[in-house]
């Protein structure tokens, strides 16, 4: 279960795990305002499916299309060499390239990355399109408990005269 953490002004701050919320309800609103950092970024969660979507379902070494059920992901810098499992070190890979690269860096394996890994953004910041981008996140839009608490910055509907 995930919990939506809101600022005192009902602006979403982050999605946290149930464990992080210490058995709190599915929405947490802070009682004091936290001014958002101008450089604050909202990234997609690091998941196998999101890595696949970021890399458009293609191997980042040979460019071959790989199905979601058969792709592997590769640590650009192997964990044995200090590489992390995060957006900037994981790429979609076909089984053939993953086996060829093995436990080496692309340079050591004489392989080139077609595209560099990056952390995909949900929204740049609060001021540039965050609300519109939040509306496109099914996880938020499909959760009625969360939608009821988010300030969408929309004009109220005018009442029709009786």
Can you walk through the features of this model?
The protein has about 160 residues and is an alpha+beta fold. The chain has helices at about 50-55, 95-100, 130-135, 140, 145; strands spanning about 1-5, 10-15, 25-30, 40-45, 70-75, 90-95, 120-125. The protein has two domains: about 1-40 and about 125-145, no CATH class; about 50-100, DNA Binding (I), subunit A (Orthogonal Bundle), CATH 1.10.30. It has a three-stranded mixed sheet with strand order 2-1-3, with no helix packed on it. A two-stranded antiparallel sheet has the order 4-7. The chain has a two-stranded antiparallel sheet with strand order 5-6. Mean pLDDT is about 75; it is low at about 155-160. A hairpin with a 5-residue loop joins strand 1 and strand 2. It is elongated, with a radius of gyration of 20 Å.
